[in-house]
Write a structure and sequence with these properties.
alpha+beta, D-Maltodextrin-Binding Protein, domain 2, 36% helix, single chain, 14 strands, 268 residues, 2 domains, five-stranded mixed sheet, Fructose-1,6-Bisphosphatase, Chain A, domain 1
Length: 268
């Protein structure tokens, strides 16, 4: 695996945050509500605090965009994008599937992505032009040729109305092609990393925030996969839809997902 100062800091920040998260996971933690379905725990807040402190001690001039508190412009010269606890709903319900996601960008281009799954001690690391690594071993997307060979992951945003219905219609369309199954695991960064390692043939979601996808998107790309929005275009730098897959499945996935996304956006 490659070496660079930002990677060392990102991994240290993730380790420090993991210590916080594991302490709270083993205890009863206090849950707050951003909205009816969008939870935030004290663990989220404390994890982000530790990550921000670790990064700022090493790079005081860099900007940090975090899910819970840290704010920065997306076009900052040096930008860290942080999800201190991806999979908060899983975490708060005692489900052992959550991660820490940290990405670093220079002049708007993501150069480094680190996703850490504390309970299994799994590291997913990607560097722009340097490859993707799972626990230090180089990896790539699996060469699925057809939809009926693959398992597909999906995510739902917090909208329980139009977005959810459109997503369910897209899932129904995919089942018409005999995919092996659908997984809704609730941790976008890990869905992306599992696509990059070849465990999944693809993953889609109709809306994600930058901290949800910044590190995982780079991981898929460096593993040889394709990442676009759900219309097949380049993703925006802010909230965006996402479709990530191995190269040979992307067109077929897009054909089944795009019509439902466009109906959601433009209406019937």
């Amino acid at each position: 695996m490659f070496e660079q100062p930002e990677l060392e800091v990102a991994m240290n920040a993730a380790r420090n945050a993991a210590s916080v998260l594991l302490k709270y996971f083993r205890q009863q933690n206090q849950i707050q509500f951003k909205s009816e379905y969008n939870l935030v725990s004290e663990a989220d807040l404390q994890s982000e605090k530790v990550i921000v402190e670790t990064i700022r001690s090493a790079f005081p001039g860099h900007e940090i965009l975090g899910e819970e508190s840290a704010t920065a412009a997306l076009d900052a010269e040096y930008l860290w994008t942080v999800d201190p606890l991806d999979g908060t709903n899983n975490f708060c319900h005692g489900i052992e599937h959550f991660a820490i996601s940290i990405a670093w960008a220079e002049q708007g281009e993501t150069k480094l992505g680190v996703v850490y799954r504390p309970l299994s001690d799994e590291w997913f690391v990607a560097g722009k032009g340097r490859g993707a690594f799972h626990n230090g071993v180089a990896c790539q997307t699996r060469n699925f040729q057809r939809l009926n060979e693959a398992l597909i992951a999906v995510g739902f945003y917090y909208d329980r109305e139009g977005q959810m219905r459109a997503t369910l219609r897209a899932i129904e369309s995919l089942f018409g092609h005999n995919i092996h199954g659908i997984r809704r695991m609730g941790t976008a960064s890990l869905d992306l990393c599992m696509t990059g390692t070849g465990r999944l043939g693809g993953y889609f979601e109709f809306e994600l925030a930058p901290w949800d996808y910044a590190a995982g998107k780079l991981f898929v790309e460096e593993a040889g996969g394709v990442v676009t929005d759900c219309t097949g275009h380049l993703m925006s730098s802010g909230n965006s839809s996402i479709l990530a897959s191995c190269p040979d499945l992307h067109a077929a996935l897009l054909q089944n997902i795009k019509p439902h996304f466009e109906t959601l956006v433009h209406g019937a």
